[in-house]
């Protein structure tokens, strides 16, 4: 199935569906009319002899250098070559696919002056499984993600490296084997390909998609922990949350109520429980996780706008004017990436505190120390909890904002930058850490619930434990638990564990 993406109207769900698939994409053909119109307007301006930045001038600090008309194509090729200066491991192929789709959406706004054939050539890279090798580092998120997008453009012109059907090779050879011809760039086309926020935005979107799934799943692991600790469901009364009014909090409380409904464990201590209030990690789960959901929704709204934006420079405006601006500055992406990082960190922080509660006999309301059947002889989940604490601490450090760390570049022409690209890329590592924290919680909470036998948890949570037990057996004897953490982290990352009849949508 080929995904049809419409510039200015592509949604987060459209982008996630494309990202999680292996299919190709095409722009809505109606968009190509405006694309060709802007290319024609640019051609007319060039014929008039007007000085146009990056078209018949140099770049950045060299903008005052005029380029002769017979060198305009060479200028664009040289731009791609000189800016292909990235460093580090190649970005994963699914992220590169998303970068290319976002670049086409941006060019598809009809304000970049490129030919429609350039967009078709980008689409064909995906269609024929030619994936540019894009090093993960080198962008400061202003004047566009220049280095990453230059490596993308290099493949288009048959230079640099690419993966063809998963095999790394020279880009020219990849195009040849795929039956594709290199693109000969015309005036401004190299600049239009390089300017833009598509690498930062793609990384932020992938971070968001992963964080959202983990945030919703954390409500399931929280519900398991609440029942394992014989916590109260009274704090999830709907009126408490409607009195405050935050959407994410209301939805989180509803999800917890639904997951815990019918639990024999809960019903066994409704009366006669001398505890007045549970610790915050149980009682305030809707407030904390709900706030994170609300922040991630804000991130999503911003990234959806950015995904549909024209972000290169200069832009061909509707009246035919060609105007230099600053849409390539990725500050919106940088700030939202920082918000997403904080939310990811907080979800892990409160989950880790629930793990710590469950393994502590002073807090777990009758569970054995470290959830070991024979504490002392066996250490149970003692060090699994330590691992969750280590990952929580890493995420706290990674949550420090990147957007405040501007540094001048390009001989002070680019004197304020966003740092959006690595600000977004660090979300991927944070999601990996969070998935492992939630894996430890799932392991501990399942163990705790089963130690309450013969009392049973709710049917919905029993079904969750059934899925957990497919990849992580109960802890009866001490064993190496790293594989269990890895297996559960993969399960949690790739499924919406405990999804109810009223799922929470981004």
UniProtKB/TrEMBL annotation:
It comes from the Bacteria. It catalyses: L-histidine = trans-urocanate + NH4(+). Its EC number is 4.3.1.3. GO terms for cellular component: cytoplasm. Contains an active site 4-methylidene-imidazol-5-one (MIO), which is formed autocatalytically by cyclization and dehydration of residues Ala-Ser-Gly. There is a cross-link at residues 142-144 (5-imidazolinone (Ala-Gly)). The modification 2,3-didehydroalanine (Ser) is found at residue 143. This is Histidine ammonia-lyase.
């Amino acid at each position: 199935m080929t995904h049809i993406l419409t510039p200015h109207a592509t949604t987060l769900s459209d982008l996630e569906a494309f990202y999680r698939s292996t299919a190709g994409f095409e722009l809505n053909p109606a968009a190509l009319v405006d694309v060709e119109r802007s290319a024609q307007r640019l051609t007319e301006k060039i014929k008039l002899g007007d000085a146009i930045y990056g078209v018949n001038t140099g770049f950045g600090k060299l903008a005052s250098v005029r380029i002769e008309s017979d060198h305009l194509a060479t200028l664009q090729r040289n731009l791609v070559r000189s800016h292909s200066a990235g460093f580090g491991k190649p970005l994963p192929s699914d992220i590169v696919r998303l970068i290319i789709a976002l670049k086409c959406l941006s060019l598809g706004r009809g304000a970049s002056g490129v030919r429609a054939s350039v967009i078709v050539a980008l689409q064909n890279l995906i269609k024929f499984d030619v994936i540019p090798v894009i090093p993960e580092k080198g962008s400061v998120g202003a004047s566009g993600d220049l280095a990453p997008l230059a490596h993308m453009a290099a493949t288009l012109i048959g230079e640099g490296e690419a993966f063809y059907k998963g095999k790394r090779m020279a880009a020219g050879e990849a195009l040849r084997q795929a039956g594709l011809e290199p693109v000969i760039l015309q005036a401004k086309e190299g600049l239009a390909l390089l300017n833009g926020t598509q690498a930062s935005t793609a990384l932020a979107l992938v971070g968001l998609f992963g964080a959202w799934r983990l945030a919703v799943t954390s409500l399931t692991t929280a519900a398991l922990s609440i029942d394992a600790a014989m916590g109260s469901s009274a704090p999830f009364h709907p009126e408490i949350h409607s009195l405050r009014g935050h959407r994410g909090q209301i939805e989180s409380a509803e999800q917890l109520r639904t997951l815990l409904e019918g639990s024999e464990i809960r019903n066994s201590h409704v009366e006669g429980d001398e505890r007045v209030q549970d610790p915050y990690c149980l009682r305030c789960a809707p407030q904390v996780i709900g706030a994170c959901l609300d922040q991630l929704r804000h991130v999503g709204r911003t990234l959806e706008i950015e995904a549909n934006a024209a972000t290169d420079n200069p832009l061909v405006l509707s009246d035919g004017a060609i105007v230099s601006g600053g849409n390539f500055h990725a500050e919106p992406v940088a700030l939202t990436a920082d918000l997403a990082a904080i939310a990811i960190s907080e979800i892990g922080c409160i989950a880790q505190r629930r793990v710590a509660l469950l393994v502590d006999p002073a807090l777990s309301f009758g569970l054995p120390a470290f959830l070991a059947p024979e504490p002392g002889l066996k250490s149970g989940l003692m060090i699994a909890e330590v691992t969750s604490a280590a990952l929580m601490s890493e995420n706290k450090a990674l949550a420090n904002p990147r957007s405040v760390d501007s540094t001048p570049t390009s001989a002070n022409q680019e004197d304020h930058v966003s740092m959006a690209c690595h600000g977004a890329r660090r979300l991927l590592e944070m999601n990996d850490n969070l998935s492992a924290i939630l894996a430890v919680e799932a392991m501990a909470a399942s163990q705790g619930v089963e130690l309450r036998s013969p009392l049973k948890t709710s049917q919905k949570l029993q079904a969750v434990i059934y899925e957990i037990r497919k990849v992580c057996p109960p802890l009866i004897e001490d064993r190496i638990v790293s594989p269990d953490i890895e297996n559960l982290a993969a399960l949690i990352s790739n499924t919406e564990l405990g999804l109810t009849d009223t799922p929470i949508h981004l």
